[in-house]
Amino acid sequence: MHTLLKQLGKGTLRTFGNIPYVEAAAKYIVNQRSAPTYEIPEIDPIRTEMDACEALRLNLFIPSINVSDSFGGIFTAVRLFEELGEILGSRSDVRMRIITHRRTTDHSVVDLTKWKLTDQKDEARYQILELINAQAQTISLSRHDIFVATWWSTAFRAARLRERQKKYFGRPFAPLIYIVQDFEPAFYPWSSHYAYAETTYLDAASTIAIFNSSLLRRFFEKQGYLFLRSYHFEPRISNSLKVHLRPNAKKEKRILVYGRPSIARNCFEVICAGLREWVRTFAGAYQWSIISAGERHPNVQLGNGIEMQSVGKLSLQAYGALLNDCAVGVSLMLSPHPSYPPLEMAHSGILTITNSYADKDLSTWHDNIYSLSRLVPEELAKAIDRCVKSFEEDNAVGWKGHSKVPFYLRGDQADEFLYAVARDITVQD
């Protein structure tokens, strides 16, 4: 409405701009700023229409399936969704629908020769629905729709769609499946966002939670969050990355940083401060190169003519090559989730520095991991100094470290707990 009024005001100025009072009124409308609505767009209500389809349909809510938007969490969620669909499809006629909030490009985490961009009337088995404008678009909703949430806002919306199912059909067909990959309220200050995110854990009596790691599951249990049922899976190295790794590759004097300045929990400021302290105190720092991968950002000056070079988000092939070459790695994560980069670094022969949090101590997962209990520049600089000196004394030291978690090296295998999830969501009254 406000936009329409502005357009009318501009038209009035063009036609009657020379008439007193009319000109002033039109200028007021054109120049008036819109009042804030204080809304959170990602949880706007979704419009629905009844669908009489009797086929079971599995729905994945995910922010994006574009490779450019995707990190480990999205790849993991899509993998679990497709695995669950295969299990259900072996038992009955099942349709699968991915509901995403961004336009899908030709560089997608799913096979676009298999998945079809669709509208509501399409009956393809594998569908992608782009929900760009929740207020203008409509989602068909049947009694047999099952929802898989991957992020707090998708869980928030999915819970309300299940309420709509109850209104339409008397009850939802199945519990909500919630793939929980971090404690997401902590992504925000104490705020409306925090409250909404936590609500998805509090209103969870009909939710099946799937946790990314036993560490994260234990954290939720200690906080007192209760779900209808809970399962977990452990991190595993991706087969797609594993093929690019060269065991016992020769390491260079290179420090690899997982650098994502826009993600607060990755503590990029602490990394920069720690590197500056190391450069200031370590006489041989000029012999080392420092690479930041994960997110494109300006190169960072560290002092004494040394800078951290940003290479941004890399392909798996380029990332694998970097893992092969680097001797020392830094990846911080202020979260109960174990995080993938430290595990990828350590298992690639890199002496890796990360941090502990709550019950998380990844030094118990691999010999190559040094876990900081205090995130301050001086402690990080000391850890970098220790790793650098260890490498300079023995260039093969990283390859001598052993993994203490056999599950990580198993690669992309079927997740057995998904058979239990399939039973949970198909048992009917």
Keywords:
429 residues; seven-stranded mixed beta sheet; eight-stranded parallel beta sheet; Rossmann fold; 34% helix; alpha/beta
Topology:
Blueprint: H1 2-16, H2 22-31, E1 47-51, E2 56-62, H3 72-89, E3 94-100, E4 116-117, E5 126-130, E6 138-142, E7 145-149, H4 152-169, E8 176-180, H5 192-202, E9 207-212, H6 214-223, E10 229-233, H7 239-242, E11 254-259, H8 268-281, E12 289-294, E13 300-303, E14 306-312, H9 316-325, E15 328-330, H10 340-346, E16 351-355, E17 369-372, H11 377-393, H12 417-426
Parallel strand pairs: 1-6, 2-3, 2-7, 3-5, 4-5, 7-8, 8-9, 9-10, 11-12, 11-15, 12-14, 15-16, 16-17
Antiparallel strand pairs: 13-14
Strand content: 15-25%
**Amount of helix:** 25-40%
CATH topology of the largest domain: Rossmann fold
CATH class value of the largest domain: Alpha Beta
Q: What's the order of the H and E elements? A: HHEEHEEEEEHEHEHEHEHEEEHEHEEHH
Q: Would you kindly provide a brief summary of this structure?
A:
With 429 residues, the protein is of the alpha/beta class. The chain is 34% helix and 20% strand. The protein has twelve helices and 17 strands.
Describe what this molecule looks like in 3D.
The chain has 12 helices and 17 strands. The model is unreliable at 1-6 (pLDDT under 50). The chain has 429 residues and is an alpha/beta fold. α3 (72-89) links the parallel β2 and β3. The two termini are 47 Å apart. The radius of gyration is 25 Å and the shape is elongated. The protein has helices at residues 2-16, 22-31, 72-89, 152-169, 192-202, 214-223, 239-242, 268-281, 316-325, 340-346, 377-393, 417-426, and strands spanning 47-51, 56-62, 94-100, 116-117, 126-130, 138-142, 145-149, 176-180, 207-212, 229-233, 254-259, 289-294, 300-303, 306-312, 328-330, 351-355, 369-372. The strands form 3 sheets. An 8-stranded parallel β-sheet has the order 4-5-3-2-7-8-9-10, with helices on both faces. The chain folds into 3 domains: 2-31, no CATH class; 45-236 and 413-426, Rossmann fold (3-Layer(aba) Sandwich), CATH 3.40.50.11090; 240-410, Glycogen Phosphorylase B (Rossmann fold), CATH 3.40.50.2000.
